[in-house]
Amino acid sequence: PVGAPDKSLAKKITKVGVIGAGLMASQFALLFVRRLQVPVIITDLDQARVDKGVAYIHDEIGKLEAKGRLDSDSANKLRSLVSGTTDKSLYADCDFVIEAVFEEVGVKQQVFGEIEKFIADDAILATNTSSLSVEEIGSTLAHPERLVGFHFFNPVAVMPLIEIVKTPQTSDAALSTAFVTAKGLRKNAVLTADAPGFVVNRLLAKVMGEAARAVYEGTPLLTVEKAFAPIGLPMTPFQLIDLVGWKVAAHVQDTMAHAFPERFFASENFHKLAELSEVVDKDKAGRVTGWSKSAEK
Ligand code: CAA
């Protein structure tokens, strides 16, 4: 891809750290195990969250086994490569650590700050942020050159793209490792500017935001869905909001509206929509909590 540095600079990955055990983190933790066949360690705020993430991965491995995509030896091997902990010192020998924690710059800086105490000087850090500034996230690191944006899409197992984001500080080794890793995961990588929403969320936020505005302005939600369906994208706007999760989608709107107030639908209105609509429960977070079921009624 344009802008990708010499792949010989890439660091060999022997162990991956995943910070966060939520839906996105668990999905890509599984992908790292499957495609790179290296140990993956997952952490979160408490053991219950960690256990939930690991259980999800075990479940998905079981489904692959049931579909005949994995034999039982391979499935067991994958399970044995996954471990969960709240002890961040166990990240010490990870050479690639990627976070998918709450989309707040301060939270991401804090978790990276904790992890950086334990990892080797040349270990790579990656953020799965979907719309925040990677440079700002890295600004409090002792080694900001090791940070690269590595943005997956939901569902991780099937979406073919990773957006790789470079900051002015990102080293060639970190960037090269990101590209080689994406290839190892069998994803297409594109290098995007470190601008709000990168490329994909910038476009999707527009679709989701305008769909929300149409409902807010009085068109029933299911009419918006029906009207959009023949356009032929794999998902209609509210199916997409549901897949991504209502809260995540609203957060992306927030970031975009903050960055480009004249171009994006303010999240304040996005939330007002939730109050107006009979089918949207503003306290629920999409598929994670079954919002789609209420939307189908
Ligand atoms: N996990 C694992 N595999 C999944 C999956 C999931 N959550 N959802 C679907 N799949 C797999 C299915 O198992 C199936 O695989 P096989 O054919 O090998 O059995 C395959 O995907 C197709 O699934 P289905 O036949 O059930 O459904 P479909 O044909 O309707 O496709 C879809 C489902 C791939 C999700 C498709 O609807 C799609 O591409 N939707 C658009 C998704 C999208 O735009 N994602 C980006 C969201 S934005 C984002 O993530 C960024 C952010 O930062 C917020």
UniProtKB/TrEMBL annotation:
Top-level division of the source organism's lineage: Bacteria
Residue span, 3-hydroxyacyl-CoA dehydrogenase NAD binding domain: 15-194
Domain 3-hydroxyacyl-CoA dehydrogenase C-terminal residue range list: 197-286
Family according to the record: In the central section; belongs to the 3-hydroxyacyl-CoA dehydrogenase family.
UniProt name for this protein: 3-hydroxyacyl-CoA dehydrogenase NAD-binding domain-containing protein
